[in-house]
Specification:
Helix 4 links the parallel strand 3 (about 65-70) and strand 4 (about 90). This protein is of the alpha/beta class and about 220 residues long. Helix 2 (about 25-35) runs parallel beside helix 9 (about 190-210), helix 3 (about 50-60) packs parallel to helix 4 and helix 4 packs parallel to helix 5. Helix content is about 45%, strand content about 15%. It has a single domain, classed as Aldolase class I (TIM Barrel). The strands form 2 sheets. It has a 6-stranded parallel sheet, sandwiched between helices. Strands 6-7-8 form a 3-stranded parallel sheet. The protein has helices at about 5-15, 25-35, 50-60, 75-85, 95-105, 115-125, 140-150, 170-175, 190-210; strands spanning about 15-20, 40-45, 65-70, 90, 110, 115, 130-135, 155-160, 180.
């Protein structure tokens, strides 16, 4: 899957769960719950030890049924390692030109983080497929996305930070192309016996919100 097709797939779902955990068993259970709920996209953050191994294990287990990305990519070496482990898109909290360039060379979608209008435009012109607007909640949430959309209507923006079921519709209404959600969707503090049910319930709710906004068409 080439990067334009990957991005199109992400935008059709409209919801991108993020898991930050070193617990391979719970991560696999959460991933399976997402797939069972019909949400076939997932970002695995590499901020925890063992992230690459978890990513590779999920890629082997789920294959094409789960579009996997790697998050917290801070340099080109990390981008290359993530793609080798099975990532088909890479996400960063910042806009490092070497990461964007590595993603382009590896033919995967690149979603760097940016916050201010200047940062967003620079990242977009550097070849980003979409922009992770992070931390969106620190700048006012949906109202900030709406303010950005007015002068920057052609840039694909994915807010992250404080996004949840309560404000998801407002983010879509403000012009977000898709939403990045962490613990508000996948709460890894739950025991494994409760995790799958929680993930399925929250995923279904968020996909219904995305569908109402014209998303969630996998």
């Amino acid at each position: 899957m080439k990067s334009p097709e990957t991005l199109e797939h992400i935008l059709r779902f409209g919801i991108v769960p993020i898991i930050r955990s070193s617990d391979q068993g719970k991560t696999a259970a959460a991933a399976e719950a997402l797939v069972n709920a019909g949400l076939g996209v997932l970002e695995i953050s590499l901020s925890h030890s063992g992230g690459l191994q978890i990513l590779e294990s999920l890629a082997d287990r789920f294959g094409d049924t789960l579009l996997l990305g790697a998050g917290t990519i801070l340099d080109a070496n990390a981008a290359r390692a993530a793609v080798s482990a099975g990532a088909r898109f890479i996400v960063s909290p910042s806009s490092d030109a070497s990461v964007i360039d590595a993603g382009k060379k590896l033919s995967v979608a690149v979603i760097p983080g940016a916050l201010t209008p200047t940062e967003i435009v620079v990242a977009w012109k550097s070849g980003a497929d979409a922009i992770k607007v992070f931390p969106a909640n620190a700048m006012g949430g949906p109202s900030y996305i709406r303010a950005l959309r007015a002068p920057l209507p052609g840039i694909v923006m994915l807010p992250c930070g404080g996004v949840n079921a309560e404000n998801a519709a407002d983010y879509f209404d403000a012009g977000a192309s898709a939403l990045l959600l962490g613990s508000s969707l996948v709460d890894m503090t739950l025991p494994e016996t409760e995790l799958a049910g929680s993930v399925r319930e929250k995923a279904a709710l968020l996909m219904s919100i995305a569908a109402a906004a014209g998303k969630a068409r996998p």
